[in-house]
Design goal:
4 helices, 40% strand, seven-stranded antiparallel sheet, 2 domains, 13 strands, globular, Elongation Factor Tu (Ef-tu), domain 3, 225 residues
């Protein structure tokens, strides 16, 4: 599990294809002295990977055929920058929301609108992003709920047919790779894990599940105690 709060930005060293898989190497400087151990989970642009050969300056990770099929990691090139987050520990502050590191969809950034507010020197100010929302994931997204975009925990500001909007502050744009992106960019989207289970339950069980949770409907003209 992760929180969607990016710890640092890494730089891709190489992506070496091998059969249907690949080996990704990333140079990284963590914000503290805690170097991940071999086998630890690391979120790379929001995709959970297993750390191999970790050192204080970098790590490697295998990309399975499934990972390459469902994420954009296979498109990475040497020099690309990526969002990185180490796995959540029990007892840590949950500053974002519970993030699995499972990419649900590859989507496009449809539009960026500048909002009034402070602007960091040489950087971008407050922005409103409109992001593609696949129909298959729409039931898992709610206004004021949480989504993860390229590993970043964000709050849904608005919803429409085929899209969602999020509001980004200057610090998020500065401290993550989102600040490099323009309309048309492709993104990883993960919906909220609790919303997934609710949608699955309602889809599988329908009204019977609601009746089980909240009790049988009252008789016409009657009421529940």
């Amino acid at each position: 599990m992760f929180t969607g709060l990016i710890e640092t930005i890494g730089t891709v060293g190489s992506l070496e294809r091998s059969g249907r898989g690949a080996l990704l190497r990333v140079a990284v400087r963590w914000p503290d002295d805690e170097v991940p151990a071999a086998g630890d989970s690391i979120a790379v642009n929001g995709a959970c990977l297993t750390a191999l050969e970790p050192t204080a300056s970098g790590l490697a990770a295998d990309l399975s055929p499934e990972t390459l099929e469902r994420t954009l990691l296979g498109d990475l090139r040497s020099g690309d920058r990526v969002n990185l987050e180490r796995a959540l520990r029990l007892g840590d502050r949950l500053g974002g929301h519970l993030v699995q590191g499972h990419v649900d969809a590859r989507v496009r950034l449809l539009a960026v609108r500048a909002e009034p507010g402070a602007r960091a020197a040489g950087g971008r100010g407050f922005e409103r992003w409109r992001i593609e929302l696949p129909r298959a994931r729409a039931a898992e997204v709610a206004e004021k709920g949480s989504v993860t975009v390229h590993g970043v925990s964000l709050t849904v500001a608005a919803l429409g047919e085929g899209w969602l909007e999020v509001a980004l502050i200057p610090e998020t744009l500065r401290a993550t790779v989102l600040g490099q992106l323009q309309p048309g960019a492709r993104l990883h989207l993960e919906t909220d894990v609790l919303a997934k289970y609710v949608a699955r339950c309602l889809g599988s069980c329908g009204q019977s599940a609601m009746d089980e949770l909240f009790g049988q409907p009252a008789e016409a003209g009657g009421h529940r105690a």
